[in-house]
Amino acid sequence: MPRNFNKYQYETSPRKLEPEYTPMKNPYKAKKTTTRNLKKDSNNKSKQLKKQQNKIVKYLLVGFAIIFGICYRNSQIDENFAKMQNLKQEVADVEKQNTQLEISIEKGLNLNNLEQEAKEKLGMQKLNSKQTIYVTLPKSDYIEPATEDLIIEQETGIKGIINTIINLFK
Predict the structure, then answer these.
(1) Over the stretch 103-114, which tens digit does the pLDDT of each residue have?
(2) Torsion sign, CA atoms 162, 165, 169, 170
(3) Where are the alpha helices (DSSP H) in the chain?
(4) What Å distances lie between residue 65 and 53, 56, 57, CA to CA?
(5) Model pLDDT for residues 143-169, shown as the tens digit of each residue
(6) Pseudo-torsion of CA 113, 118, 121, 124, nearest 10°?
């Protein structure tokens, strides 16, 4: 407020001087407390601090568990991929061996090679004219015709019984 010193004052009391600034109360200044309140406040603050620390520790543990799970899963995937690559390599090797064996079998299947193996390994020889025996078979048919006559129609009733009795006496 601006000061006006020139004005006359009608009251009998002297004028009050206003300070140039008004002091502000400190909001952070602690209230006067008793020892009981101090103990309760310190206990509450320590409990809250412990709760916050426990929360942080729990979140860190959960985070580490998630990261560990991801790393473990990736290692399993890498192992399975390596196994699959090894199996593919083995399959390719076996297929290559199969084709080589097929080619060698096809080369070894000609008559000269078979004849040579029969002579060397089994001790076989070609037939001479003395070793051949000719068999003569009759030109007649070896199938015998059926000797029994088949009765196609059988009579039933009184006529059938009479015919069978007559056939027995014939």
Answers:
(1) 888 887 788 888
(2) positive
(3) 35-108, 111-121, 158-169
(4) 18, 14, 12
(5) 766 666 555 555 567 777 888 888 888
(6) -150
